[in-house]
Amino acid sequence: xxxxxxxRVRALYRRILLLHRVLPPDLKDLGDRYVKDEFRRHKAAxxxxxxRFLQEWEAYAAVLWQQxxxxxxxxxxxxCFGISLPEEKLNDxxxxxxGQLQExxxxxTKPNRQFNITESRKPKF
Length: 125
Known about the structure:
SDHAF3/Sdh7; transit peptide
């Protein structure tokens, strides 16, 4: 991985962890663990896979920033985070990724959460 990629990865990693600070505590903890695991898991990725990995996480960071901004403006409503995944993206996932996604969904949708995960909100770019 080039020095430019390493610098980009570190900056993105820090940005995501900073963005997670706006999340409710239990969602922040879940998100931080997942991000740390995923970035660790992709340390040795090839350049093509690394580029796609970075693009997906940059899109995640942009969506999270947008939703955090919207939630601050609508402070009287319960905070909402998340987007639905299009079927074509799910079709690109490996079995291992589908399993991780199911675990993440199970963990994020446990009763008595301090947040809502919605399927209808689309990011505004």
